[in-house]
Design goal:
The complex is a heterodimer of chains A (203) and B (261). Chain A has 203 residues and is α/β, with parallel strands linked by helices. Chain A has six helices and twelve strands. Chain A has a single domain, classed as Rossmann fold (3-Layer(aba) Sandwich). Helix content of chain A is 25%, strand content 29%. Chain A is globular. The two termini of chain A are 16 Å apart. Chain B has one domain: Aldolase class I (TIM Barrel), CATH 3.20.20. Chain B has an eight-stranded parallel barrel, surrounded by seven helices. Chain B has a two-stranded antiparallel sheet with strand order 13-14. In chain B, helix 3 links the parallel strand 5 and strand 6. The longest helix of chain B has 11 residues. Classes of the chains: A alpha/beta (203), B alpha/beta (261). Chains A and B meet through helix 1, strand 6 and helix 6 of A and helix 3 of B.
Chain lengths: 203, 261
Amino acid sequence: MAEVSILDYGIGNIGSILNMLRKLRVPAEAVSVRDSLRAATRLILPGIGAFDACVTALEASGLREDVLEFAASGRPLLGICVGMQMLTLGSEEGNRPGLGLIRAQTRRFKPGAGLRIPHMGWDQVRWMLPEHPLARNLLDENRFYFVHSFRVTCESPADSLAVCTYGEEFSAAIANRNVAGVQFHPEKSHRFGLQLLGNFASA
Amino acid sequence: MSSLRPRVIPCLQFAGGELFKTRRFKDPLYLGDPINAVKLFNDLDCDELIMVDIRATIEGRGPDYAMIEEFATEAFMPLTYGGGIQSGEQIGRILSIGIEKVVVGTAAPDGRLIAEAAAVFGSQSIVVSVDVRRKLFGQREVCVRSGTRNLGVEPRAYCLQMQQFGAGELFVQSIDLEGARSGYDIALLKDISAAVQIPVVACGGAGTLQDIRQVLDSTSVAAAAAGTMFVLHGRHNAPLISYPRPEEIAGLSRPSEESAQ
């Protein structure tokens, strides 16, 4: 029985996430049908590329409502990269609404002098809620791997689990009750990513 | 200029399950097991890794998926694969294994594959390799097919064209400097990194951390890649995997970037 299920709706680097969970010896599987999603203990929503493409793919998979149902059931849900952005109300990158599970907006980086987009590479985050289970054993100097052109801002600062600064401050991780998201790629962030995914697997 | 700390990237060459290091794209020196090398670089917390199959194109075969999958299961960092890429289908299969970026070289010039792949997979996963050879009188031109076919194109124009096709990153390698440990081709990298908006990865010529510092300080490249200095040691070229310590890497940050934060 898988402890972590990764939603396979045709988008995202599921292979990398499975590889890291395997390294953590956490039983994990990719799920693409309703019955397995309903039976899942914890769910990861991956996402990469354009916001609308991800939302459209999720709808086409027929599993959008099931993800909302999963979140409403109180079981842990983690969005990664555009998967995190999909948890918000919507994105300036596209026209489709997000899942609205966390009251936040996904916006363009403000164009600044020489700000190179995407924000790609290793960056440090500041944990605003260090006592949160996902932040267990993680420190402000820990670095994570980011690749994104849009950034999330929470309506309530209480939902901003970690922040990062790139031209301006944005939410690098968000959390509201059982729903959480990370803008960076834990599956590509060495020991710190292992720690975070391990935290999620034991949440 | 506001951007992240520049990345330092080992670039490893392999073929048929063996790790090699070439010099000026020739004379492959056998170094051991590539999977072991990936494990070692992973344990050294390196920023990123580039794995190049140096015989895939020349032998006219596709990527060695079984080997690539072994790399992906050992590397918990961004991983780039290059070698023998001819189709979007191959790129899709490699990305699904858990590789972040795919390098296209020989199949890049007409732009069709780059445009198609960027549209399907996103520019961020498509890297174009730009192998540059120096001619007499300092002129430079772009080569493909492991340096065996000259495109007769000047590097800067080629890079701008690749950016327009949808490349997300350029891997610019100086053929003549590969393995020379005499420093990067600063003039070339300065010119290209100032001309394009997408990240440029510099490769070819690094022998010391000082060479890396020099290319980062005097050009706008986003990353410095090196093979020889991370896999060979000393005058006798003894195989030895190494990578700068975290404090050495942190010391490579550009001062202007820190103040821009």
